[in-house]
Amino acid sequence: MALRWPESFRNREPGVWISAGAHAAVLGLALFAVAAPALPDAQEGVPVEVLTEQQFSELTRGERNAEKPENNPNRADRVSEKMEQREPENAKTDAPAAPTRTADTKLAAVDAMPLRADTADPVKEEAEAAAAKAEAAKAEAEKAAAAKAAETKAKAEAKAKADAAAKAEAAKAEAAKAAEAKAAAAKAEAEKREELQKLVEREQAEAEAAAKAAEAKAKARAEAKAKADAKAKAEAKAEAEAHAKAEAEAKAKAEAAAKAEAEAEHRKQVAEAKAKAEAEAKAKAEAAAKAKAKAMADAKAKADAEAKARHQAELANKFSPGDIRQALASKAASQSTGATGREVQRTASLGAATGNAQRLSPSLRDALVGMLQQQIERCYSAPPGATQGVVLPMLDIRLNPDGSLTAEPRVMRAGNNSVDQSIAQAALRAVRRCAPYKIPAQYAPYYNDWKAINAEFEFSPV
């Protein structure tokens, strides 16, 4: 079966391939840009012993009078407590070979001969000879090395001496150069200091001249200011004297006007006090007349009550049960049948025009007025700046039986000055604010006598 590309991958529509290639290129560039260089390998630290300059100099300097070191000396950090002993076969060097027999060598006796004699080994002897030769060569090499080291050390010392001498010459030349530079700098500094001193002296002279000029100018200005101040002070003094004179005249006029007003007020107060005394005397006379009339009325009422009691006693004495029975059994029509109408009158009729209602005694009336004044005084607020007035306000108060106001209270009498007027108005506000008033039940029968109260009220200024 033949393979076919999907419809979306046609050669005539290469957009998918271009998009894929572009995406792959972008991803590759991103990975290449993000890639970071490899970090360097961590190096293992090497332990280093730090030496001071003194230790290093002592280490490298050495001693001139020291003994010549041995060839290949064995180094020992400390003295061993026990000497090391090794077997001959384990020694570092072989044992020396036996001497060879010569013609002069005498033979030992047979008895003196050992039972077993070791024969010489030529290989061993060669080895020992080679070892001795090697030791000699090694000693020569060490000797040559020591000589070379001594020569190198001598050369180094000579070079060090030469360097030290060169350094000393250079230091000496540098010191001379520094001394010359220091001398030149000191000379330049001295010249600069001298110029600076001259500049300071010149500036001081200019400053002194400027100070003298400023002092002269300030002195002239102070003199001008003193003259101006003296002139202004004289003018102010003259103006103050004129003003004080005007104030004294105005004060004298005000005092004269106040004195005249006070005298007029005093005369007015005297006249008002006289009128008040006359009114009080008249009120007392009226009260006495009323008391006398009431006493006469009480006596008359008492006499009428006694007469009525006597009449009732007489009727009781004349009482006969038979007369009552006869009156009840009588069938005669009454003389009056009463008025007729569509409904019966159920309200009580008013009293007669000439009838007398119950009246308050003077003590009860004073007590009622005192209670009302106490209640009104709780609501009274003295006007600002007002003190006790000269003329007490007389108020007209109309009350209902429950203590509420029947009509608006009004001022019947008050003083003419502003203080008395403000106190009277404050009293009216207090009367309106405290309503309704608490009236004891014992005053209910006397309502017709206290429903209209005209009384003077005296309030504290606080």
Structure report:
The chain is mostly helical and 462 residues long. Among the domains are: 278-318; 362-462, 2-Layer Sandwich (Fusion Protein Consisting Of Minor Coat Protein, Glycine Rich Linker, Tola, And A His Tag, Chain: A, Domain 2). Helix content is 59%, strand content 3%. The chain has helices spanning 15-34, 53-61, 122-317, 321-329, 362-379, 418-434, 447-450, and strands spanning 394-398, 410-413, 452-456. Strands 2-1-3 form a three-stranded antiparallel sheet. Helix 5 (362-379) packs across helix 6 (418-434). It is elongated and about 210 Å long.
The CATH class name of the domain at 362-462 reads Alpha Beta
Identify the quaternary structure here.
Answer: single chain
Low-confidence stretches: 114-118, 318-355
Give the integer mean of the pLDDT values.
Answer: 75
Shape: elongated
Largest sheet: 3 strands, antiparallel
Count of discrete alpha- or pi-helical segments spanning 4 or more residues: 7
Report the strand count.
Answer: 3
CATH T-level fold name of the domain at 362-462: Fusion Protein Consisting Of Minor Coat Protein, Glycine Rich Linker, Tola, And A His Tag, Chain: A, Domain 2
- What is the alpha-carbon Rg in Å? 77 Å
How far apart the termini lie comes to 125 Å
What would you say the CATH architecture of the domain at 362-462 is?
A: 2-Layer Sandwich
Strand order of the largest sheet: 2-1-3
Topology:
Blueprint: H1 15-34, H2 53-61, H3 122-317, H4 321-329, H5 362-379, E1 394-398, E2 410-413, H6 418-434, H7 447-450, E3 452-456
Helix pairs in contact: 5-6
